[in-house]
Amino acid sequence: MVVESDLRHIGARRAATSTKRFLGKGPKFWRDALTGWAMALPWLIGFLVFTAGPMGLSFYYSFTFFNIPQPPRWMGLYNYQFLPTWVLFRKAVYNTLYYVALSQPLAIVGSLFLAVLMNQNIPGRAAFRTIYYLPSVLSGVATAMLWLWLLNPRSGIVNVALRSIGLPAPNWLFDEHWAKPALVLMRMWGLGAGAVIFLAGLQGIPEHLHEAAQIDGAGRWRRFWSITLPMLSPTVFFQLVTGFIGAFQMFAPVYVWTQVEAGSTGTVGAGPQNSLLMYALLLYQVAFGSGANMGRASAMAWMLFVFILALTIIQFRLAKFWVYYEAGPEGGV
Amino acid sequence: MEKRMTRRQALGAVGGLLASAVLVACAPGPTPTPQVIVKEVTKVVEVEKEKVVEKPVEKVVTQVVEKVVKETVAPPQRTKITYLHFHSDVVRVGAQDLLVGNYNRDSLKYVVEPVFVPFGELTQKWEAALASGEPFDILLSSGMDAGRMGMEKKALNLDAYWDASKKLPPATPENWVPYTILELSGVVYQGKKYGVPFQPDTRFLFLDVKAFKEVGLDPEKPPVTWDDLWTYADKLDKGKKGAWQRIGFCPVWGQSWFWMWLWSMGWCEWDQQNEFKASVMDRPEVRECIQWHIAWRDRYGRDDLNALAAGFTGLVDAFITGMNPILVHGSWMPARYKVVKPAFEIAYAMFPRHPGKNGRHSSWGAGHCMVIAPNSKHPDGAWDFIEWFLSAENMKLWCTKTGTFVGRADVMNDPDVQKAHPHYKIAFEQLKLTNPCPTPVPYPGADYRGAMLLVWDGKATIDEALKQKQEEANQAVQDWIKTHPGQ
What we know:
Chain A contains 14 helices and two strands; from the N terminus they run ααββαααααααααααα. Chain A is mainly α.
């Protein structure tokens, strides 16, 4: 029977051994270690100065009232208490969750569908791939301006097409109920980037798995459901995690649209009844708008960070139930 | 071997000498002095005279002198002053470039570099630069912001400069146009001046003369009251719901803001000293004003108005396209319309008043002022430019070129300036009845317009909208008190 003192003794002996082993390394080990650290140093300095440092500062600012260039003033938890009671904050949270909930599943399914189509052996396949990927290389501002015209209620091509087939033509960005669906529609236009990643995943699936299933009498749908999808699950998982992170930070199009809207109709805010007030846009307005408060904006940033982090951890926890790694989850054998 | 090396060396030496000679010949001489410039100019003028006899020689001289001076006066000898502005329209940018060019030509100590930023990003850029310790020297700010900026230490106290100035008139009523005196309160915080008013503005009615004549209306007899707008619109409307070809009048288009209509009923939440009266939203005036807006919505249909508004961007607005023959717009627009559509005939009228006994032709104005960064490295240079830019001579030129107002009374009272643009007569009268909305008030304003829009969009009844916006205003006030202790 092992008693507590024995355990303590074993532990102390192991620690002494490993320290001795570590200190006993030859000059080559230390030279290599130094070289390694020297190679990593530029990145480390960059990380500490440009990422970890500002993050730490913004965490401190989130407990202050900070109107640049005046020094920050300590407010304790006030920003974190105020935000959930603020009507604009609640509106921004609702709009962002609505957008993420609607756009993310559509983006995953849509880009997978597109990738499957582009994976078919048809003439002009490379041209199709280029065409679908093209919107992804355009800047966010250019895309937003383009869609502003496409969605123009009177002369936009979308409504012209809808009217030509006898469907009602919404006011899109000028209607509270259609503004967010318009944003989702615009995201669907940029599915090419996600489709290219799915395409790479599709092409990585060994052909012999399909052949074996075909010999066993599996049809197209069965093979897709039982082979393609499980083999693609790591790609789906990647798209899901990065897609969620990106969607929660939606900014450029709503910023551009609300700027143009303010100029053309004399309205202010973010779309009709603030229907386009996304979380990141409100954060920007709080930081730099009238009565700018960098402290409250920092609190908003940290709340978003914690929420996204929690969501990502949940996604990783759930992944073990549906993501299939052929080589094991750690990439080992 | 030894002999060959020597020959190579000799050839190298000759080559090096030749190269040096070429380089020396091509090298620039000492920095040109003004005397050298004059000599060069004379030569060019003579050639021009020979070539083009009928061409006015004076003009050629001026052009050449400007060009040569800009290119040859070495910038390091002068201090650079950065000027952050948001002018992007062709009319004002042209006038501004001309004035800045003149200053840079004449100033011996400073050279001004204008930096454009869209209006929506102006505050962000200014504050980021302040925080970085490398600020812009001058900001063309919203006229109502300077006092608040002073309170927040984002603008320099200009008292010492202004009080000692021999070029700028003192900040007293006789020296500044009536509205600007109110605006001066906007640039003042706790008795200290943080900005100099540059171009105040106001809003009034623009009338499409052709459309008026087409339906038998006399543009010389414009709508005077709210009721007149309704009856004039009866005649001017063209089309029907779902297919409007012309909207007689819409109170939410152009530069028409809810609080202007509220003020035209004879009520204002700011008194003449710009002291903020506690904002109670549920007032009879607010209710009537919302109901009046909703009547217009029901007349044309909300979706119809939204769809039409979506087609207008920037200068291509409802008015210039003939879609909206009565529009509330700003004093800066006539000159721009003239550039876009020179033959478009426009008449002007005062902002309509409420038909009740308290009704007045009240309007809203803001305008722009110039401020200096509190941590500017060259405040003297910044003031030198501001003082020069806002001189009577330059402001006359500004009025003539842009059709906007300036704050200086001596300029606006100049008969030549008053005759310069057809809208000045009405606009100047309107300016006397214009209220500013100064921002350095201790509490944030109530969102009257937001309440109206809740009803406009069918989201709430008037009761619900006023209650909701009152709660939001109360919360904003509490937040302000909490975050601004002692102010």
